[in-house]
Specification:
Length: 522
């Protein structure tokens, strides 16, 4: 139960919220009302203002002007409390808790220690009471429905859903002492379907305890499953705030992008070209044996729950992690293991799932980030022709509709989805024989996602072989001519043609979950 809290009673209202950056109006007179005990979704394309709004709530940015923000009391007796936006201390005191997309966990220490960050430890006789801290950590996670992992193990060894649970538990530690609003920023960005379901169960448990949720996501199907109301932002302005029950998927997309988005499927050609990517008996990471061939003009998708090996297919093929055995060919060229430069030289381009640590040079310009994959083409003798370099970057910005004030702006000034577009341009400009993509549209809005998908279609139509791993089953259905589903480090199922449906992918992935549940713990 929600302690008798009414969904009609507002918890937080924000009015006249502006944020102006040099050359850009990020938020333009935004209004937001979150009701007590509800889940309120916040959606919009990259650059719509969602991240700016969350950062103002968290105190990372200060608003422009003097917005009005008020916390209301559910009892109808206590006085309303003004909230100082742009002040992290004020947000914490008011009971706002955050789980950001990057989670902010320390992978090298345990769940116990991560939960204690910021709040401190239980002590006894001047020393940390590890027994009490262990019990407390177990209880905090059990409340959320997570009681199946060792809280003493390093967080880096946990599955993505378990890491998200740790971040959620840390945000809510002591919720009974004042937590009123939980802000979740893209909490499912790296989670496959089974883990999303589990996280939603945890969110519902939080909501039952009277905590309101502000839920930010690009996955619109999640909005319909978890949210009561939704606010849509476009170009920094409120487009609408509506009950989710009043919308359908297509109407929500139309409100976000301002026009109807045409949805397409990959066309299966009757003839396949030559084999351009050939992985034979390759192993490494969670992969026991990988045998896959991708032909010219073909898009092959890779699916699987976390731990199946899906998450290591692209890093292994692209040489980002070492292999234990097997051979890999790009065209007729054998690529040595753990050698990304050799893979690129042979004609491979790849985009990593983790743009922040494995692709994005935050302080360098959009131009530099776009063209660094091959600087020679914009050189004249030993000198780099900057005008030519900028012109090429500008052409990719136009083609991918990347939102940036200038190609000379630092990458850090772009939204996450627009950063991903730049990394995609970096690979495509090589005109590669083989393109390998890991979560290619993670953090990208629905309009930009279709643009990226169209570019993948064009690359395949031009003769590239494409291998794409994704936790987004709808994305795999949209793109793929074949889909490989991994279980226990091997390809267990292959779907082709009419077999490629969201239901069939999720059913095949679920088989592994059921098998794992039947295996007794040692």
């Amino acid at each position: 139960m929600t302690r008798g809290i009414s969904f009609v009673q507002p918890l937080l209202t924000i009015e006249h919220l502006f944020k102006v950056f040099p050359g850009q109006v990020a938020l333009d007179d935004v209004q937001l009302e979150i009701k007590a005990g509800s889940t309120h979704a916040l959606v919009g394309q990259n650059g719509s203002g969602k991240s700016t709004l969350i950062k103002i709530l968290a105190g990372y940015h200060e608003p422009t002007g003097e917005p009005i923000a008020v916390f209301h009391h559910a009892d109808g007796v206590s006085c309303d409390e003004p909230l100082a936006l742009g002040n992290g201390g004020a947000a914490a005191a008011a009971g706002i808790r955050f789980v950001h997309q990057d989670l902010g966990l320390v992978d090298t220490v345990s769940t116990i220690e991560n939960l204690a960050l910021g709040g401190g430890y239980t002590t006894r006789f001047g020393r940390i009471d590890w027994k009490a801290e262990t019990k407390r950590a177990i209880n905090d996670l059990a409340v959320l429905g997570f009681d199946d992992f060792d809280v003493r193990a390093p967080v880096g060894s946990l599955a993505p859903s378990q890491k998200t649970a740790v971040a959620l538990a840390r945000a809510l530690r002591g919720w009974e002492n004042g937590a009123r609003l939980l802000v979740l920023d893209e909490p499912t960005a790296s989670l496959p379907g089974a883990d999303v379901t589990r996280l939603f169960e945890a969110i519902r448990r939080v909501k039952e305890r009277g905590v309101a949720i502000l839920y930010v996501s690009h996955h619109l199907e999640e909005v319909f499953e978890i949210a009561d109301e939704v606010t849509i932002l476009r170009d920094g302005k409120n487009v609408a705030t509506m009950q989710v029950s009043e919308l359908d998927h297509e109407r929500l997309i139309e409100l976000m992008v301002g026009h109807v988005v045409e949805r397409r499927r990959a066309l299966v050609s009757g003839e396949r070209g030559a084999v351009l990517l050939d992985a034979h008996q390759v192993s490494g990471g969670n992969i026991r044996v990988l045998d896959v061939q991708v032909h010219a003009g073909e898009v092959v998708g890779v699916a699987g729950i976390t731990g199946s090996g899906r998450e290591h297919v692209i890093p292994l093929v692209s040489g980002q992690i070492p292999s234990n055995d097997g051979r890999l060919y790009v065209g007729a060229v054998e690529v040595p293991p753990f050698a990304p430069r050799a893979a690129i030289a042979a004609g491979m381009a790849f985009v990593s799932a983790d743009r922040q640590s494995q692709g994005n040079f935050a302080t360098l310009s959009v131009t530099a980030n776009t063209t660094m994959s091959d600087v020679k083409r914009n050189s004249q003798g030993p000198r780099l022709v900057h005008a030519r370099e900028r012109a090429e970057a500008e052409s990719w910005v136009t083609k991918l509709r990347t939102k940036t004030s200038s190609t000379e702006s630092p990458m850090a000034t772009l939204s996450g989805g627009n950063q991903q577009k730049v990394l995609f341009a970096r690979g495509l400009r090589l005109r590669p024989k083989v393109i390998v993509l890991d979560e290619p549209t993670r953090g990208i809005d629905v309009g930009a996602k279709e643009e990226i998908h169209s570019l993948i279609d064009e690359a395949a139509a031009d003769g590239s072989a494409v291998l794409v791993a994704s936790t987004d089953t709808e994305e795999l259905v949209r793109l793929s001519h074949r889909i490989l589903i991994l279980r226990d480090g091997v390809v267990a199922t292959e779907l082709i043609g009419d077999e490629i449906t969201v239901e069939n992918i999720e059913r095949a992935q679920l088989q592994q979950t059921q098998l794992q549940q039947k295996v007794p713990h040692s």
